[in-house]
Design brief:
single chain, alpha+beta, Barwin-like endoglucanases, 2 domains, six-stranded mixed barrel, three-stranded antiparallel β-sheet, 5 helices
């Protein structure tokens, strides 16, 4: 087994003074009960290592010394106190955003909405067909679904509600619609947001969650920044 050190908050505090997030206690329990694999458990540990909470002295060995983890968690994690304690590892997280037509410079082409012809920039149209919705120069939102274009006052999720940065697209066969969840392995501030599984997508299958990051180029940058494998997802326990 690999050796683990939990880093102290300051030089004067004992070795187990580091703050271990509550979700890790549940992940550890799942591992002990053989509900998740060594690889999934190791990914959770790797995240805490990168966050500076623990130090793996032997990085090649996936499982960690059980008595060290149990001791640390027992002192610092209240296992029954979190509303988001149904945690699992090995999630693929991506991001999607709403493009702004004003950010594009392609030629204008014709698109039909309810049998009415409109002019939009070609590169903007291509982005909409990937992302789902875009904000036009006129201020309306143009959406692409059901193999046709639609206009709306707001970008909409799969249920017809306005998209917010707390929305995520999920596979409803894995995460029930409208479930609330957190993704503590994401970079801030996304690690502290309570998301709602209000959207779906044909590419969102299995342990894959697509996070809506907002409008414009900055939101596209955020979508790229949060994309990655090996994430922790915690569902709300009601």
């Amino acid at each position: 087994m690999a050796l683990v050190c939990f880093l102290p908050a300051s030089g004067d505090e004992p070795p187990f003074a580091a703050s271990i997030p509550e979700w890790f206690g549940m992940v550890h329990q799942y591992w002990k009960n053989e509900q998740i694999t060594d690889v999934e458990f190791a990914n959770a540990i790797s995240y805490l290592q990168k966050a500076g909470v623990m130090l793996l002295l032997d990085k090649e060995d996936a499982p960690i010394a059980d008595f060290l983890v149990t001791s640390a968690i027992g002192k610092q994690v209240g296992l029954g106190n979190s509303d988001f304690s149904d945690c699992s590892a090995e999630w693929y997280i991506t991001g999607y955003f709403t493009p702004l037509e004003s950010d594009y410079s392609g030629k204008f082409i014709t698109a039909s909405v309810n049998d009415i012809s409109y002019k939009f920039r070609e590169d903007f149209i291509k982005e909409i067909k990937i992302e789902g919705w875009g904000k036009t120069i006129s201020g309306q939102y143009l959406g692409w679904y059901g193999e046709s274009f639609h206009l709306s006052e707001k970008p909409l999720d799969a249920a017809g509600n306005a998209l917010e940065p707390s929305a995520v697209a999920v596979d409803p066969s894995v995460i029930p619609a409208s479930s609330r969840l957190t993704i503590p392995s994401l970079p801030g501030p996304w690690d502290e947001i309570i998301f709602t599984g209000s959207d779906t997508g044909t590419a969102i299958i299995g342990k894959h969650i697509d996070v809506y990051t907002g409008e414009g180029k900055t939101s596209l940058d955020e979508a790229y920044r949060i994309t990655g494998y090996g994430n922790i997802v915690c569902l709300e326990v009601k």
